[in-house]
Amino acid sequence: MKMYQLIWRYECSASQKEAFENAYRRNGTWFQFFEKSEDFLGQELIHNVDMGNYLVIDSWISKETYDSFLKENKVEYDQLDAQCKSLYAKEEFLGPFVTVE
Hints:
Blueprint: E1 4-11, H1 17-24, H2 29-34, E2 40-47, E3 53-60, H3 63-72, H4 74-84, E4 90-98
Antiparallel strand pairs: 1-3, 1-4, 2-3
């Protein structure tokens, strides 16, 4: 099964590391928000120990299911996004990807 994955890169200060990880790790704040959808397959938080930055990978069944969830939950998504902006210095969307079978 192909997965639709959204990959984000974040930079955060050492003082925000714990709060950032609590928001973006598996079973963290964002995970709990997305897991309301049966089409959400999971989230990975990966820390680059040399550079100090992070990758967040959100996995969904398809682009359509992600778009539908986002549309239906836009207000809550925007509120959570605004709350988390103080946890990082830089956010970069690396793009949507699909797994290769």
